[in-house]
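Honest question from a wet-lab person: if I give you the sequences of every part of a complex, can you actually get the arrangement of the whole thing, not just the pieces? Trying it with mine:
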Amino acid sequence: MKYLLILSVSFFLSCKSEIKIEVKSAVMLAPLEIYDFSGIEPYLSLAGSKTYIVNFWATWCAPCVKELPHFESIQENYKEDVEVILVSLDFPRQYESKLKPFIEKHQLKSKVIVLDDPDMNSWISKVDANWDGAIPVTLIYNTSKRSFYDRSFSYNELESELKTFLTNK
Amino acid sequence: MTIIYSVLILFVTAFTTHSADKGYDIGDIATDFVLEDTNGNFVSLTDFRDAKGFIVVFTCNTCPYAVLYEDRIEALNKKYAPQGYPVIAIMPNNVKTKPGDSMKSMRIRALDKGFTFPYLMDAGQKIYPQYGATKTPHVYVLESAMRGCDFVNVVRYIGAIDDNYKDATLVKTNYVEDAVNALLKGNDIKETKTKAIGCSIKL
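Yes, you can. This is the full assembly:
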């Protein structure tokens, strides 16, 4: 694999403008973690000491993209006590063209995992019985409390919800 | 007078019970409407005098899930309109929030795709909340029935079109087809409610 990479770089040495693009995409874009629902399910009931915030989103979902920075800020401001997990519902054909560039452009710090499981009726209710499939939705839980939110958040709203979990422990 | 008054109260409660924020459940009576289609005609369910029922689809131009289902919605109409179950598509989004769902854009899409079903705009956003639609696409299969002297449309199925948005050839269960086929045969519908990811309806 290393050999291949070196090969492709040296191949483009002759046309300078393309060197950057090749090297950059090879170095910066980590592979996506893509799962079906059975692979996502463990993240919905982690037993660690933190409070977990699981947000279902997609790059094509405008209200999701709008609230994403708040989840990032919460992750940054509460990194000792909180783990934010962003579950992307992007379309497989847009992983390379939309999702990866989005993660890179916004330098997402939170953990991003990708859910690719087209039999949606089989798993939506397992996330929460009240979820009908519209996004964004958010699950906040720790070992003593669990709530599902079929709504968007401002930073203050998200923080005040989170605080009810942190004081609860 | 008291009798008339209590009958009136009965009627009022009967028609307001299910219009709460949750929308319809199976067995509820769905409201009719007068909404403009992409040809400038105002369409109501009562216009379809020979219909045995309806496949009401809340859908739009801009939601990628809705776009992936466009051909399948058209196929449903081609298959079931002749059998008495026409598709009625309703675009529920606020066009100020989603300019790509304007009547002009709807007209272009309907022409491009050759939609044979009416594609209506819920211009006042008054109809989708009564149904309880939350996302696109969101399907309601209605069965027409006589109640007293009136035709009513009873909700028989709510949910997704099938179980594979990505690839129509990989579908294992065609929820809407199964529901309509059951109604046509007078059988019970196996799955009356299903869920799918969709784009939230834009206010």
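Two things worth pointing out. The longest helix of chain B spans residues 64-80. Chain B touches chain A at residues 64, 134-135, 159-160, 163-167, 170, 172, 175, 194-201 (CB under 8 Å).
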